[in-house]
Amino acid sequence: MARREGEGRGESNGTGSANLGFERTMWAAADKLRGSMDAAEYKHVVLGLVFLKYISDAFQEHQVSLAKSYPDEAEDRDSYSAEGVFWVPKEARWSHLQANAKQPTIGKLVDDAMDAIERENPTLKGVLPKDYARASLDKQRLGEIIDLVGTIGLGDKENRSKDILGRVYEYFLGQFASAEGKKGGEFYTPRCVVRLLVEMIEPFKGRVYDPCCGSSGMFVQSEEFIKEHGGKLGDISIYGQESNPTTWKLAKMNLAIRGIEANLGTHNADTFRNDLHKDMKADFILANPPFNMSDWGGEGLNDDVRWKYGVPPPRNANYAWIEHMIHHLAPGGIAGFVMANGSMSSQSSGEGEIRKALVQADLVDCMIALPGQLFYGSMIPACLWFLARDKGNGKLRDRRKRILFIDARKMGNLIDRRHRELSDEEISRISTTFHAWRGKEETSKYEDAAGFCKSVTLEDVEAHGFVLTPGRYVGSEEEENNGEPFQDRMARLTETLEKDFAESARLGEQIRANLRSLGKG
What we know:
Layout: H1 23-31, H2 39-69, H3 77-81, H4 94-99, H5 106-120, H6 139-150, H7 157-161, H8 164-180, H9 182-185, H10 191-201, E1 206-210, H11 217-228, E2 236-240, H12 245-256, E3 282-287, H13 318-327, E4 329-340, H14 351-360, E5 364-369, E6 382-388, E7 402-407, E8 413-414, E9 420-421, H15 424-438, E10 453-457, H16 458-463, H17 471-474, H18 486-520
Parallel strand pairs: 1-2, 1-3, 3-4, 5-7
Antiparallel strand pairs: 4-6, 5-6, 7-10, 8-9
């Protein structure tokens, strides 16, 4: 997927898109709140205001247009909903909040505005943050944030066409994830990783599902992919679930500002204990489950219908997530998801037996080893799994009894001291390799590349004990030394080494003989 470079101004922000020119200023303003609350709290303060400013700007622009052409409809809510614009009552309009930003009652006024928005727009009911009046929130600094946000045109038509709010959210989510560490990483997946997943499975038509959807980044990029490839947004149906209540609300807001319809359930819920989409079968599954989650409640789920390939260990949810996704995969469906590297080789608590069953069932389509330092808040090395229900369905090349391994650990560029990012070219190389292997018509013929990719038989995987680590299979990249191929160079060096060993043995024996003669003398 082509990155939307050049929109707005500024340098790379570390989340995969150019700065718009004001994100750093907004982040600095948000940072002022650190003295009175931690990052987990203040992100909702700022993002709630950004959301409110966006819908107010969009409303105002449409209102001005109506006042010119159809004055009688300027206060007719139906005239707004017909254009996909949220109805914003007078007490929630940004002009009202801006005028009162310096008042000590500003916290209550913002809460009242959020209540009014939810009351007038049922799809947002129970979603918006409404705790701006709390004593712990510095009202002077809240007023400063409102003044700053007020200088930015977020919802006018030109900016909406550039998805500025989406990019503000993306920037802030990335910054919050970095600031919060592990907690942030649970709801934020780096944009380049999401783009790679989406480019690999290409969700053009059907049901798209994420069982741990976080802030809905997978869904947003699925929609972007469809737009950029000339598809129709109505061709996909979105299903998701999120257990964290504040993150669930953030996901709803993130989708609402883009006009994306999705079924995330009527409330947050634990995917393992309360599956909100129990009977749903998805054509595409995209996910980044929490790594190595130990408190997932496995002890009480031993007889669950989802564990077709073995009961997952109760102290690690990695294989519970994998089997849950397989359970929800349609007959011709494909799943792409992030996992900790340990999932590819672990033999503990029966994980090796489950992995063996998955390989023997011919569900594993492709495995990708990722470079380190991609994820905010986690230094755990990660990989991508791709599973397919039917690898010989006739639409693509028959891939039954084979698995593609890709080693991308050497890819990526450092964007700061702690974080790495895959480039557009690298994402394209990986996804194009996968599509060529699958036999997609518009791609070139697939070929193994030493050190990067290899198509492997299930017998080969069995010979390696059903370990799915790409490095086991792709080999080393061929090197040249003055034009000498790696294999020839290796044979020559081996022969030289053997001669050196023989000479060393001869010299050793000569030294021992000399020592013996000295002893006799």
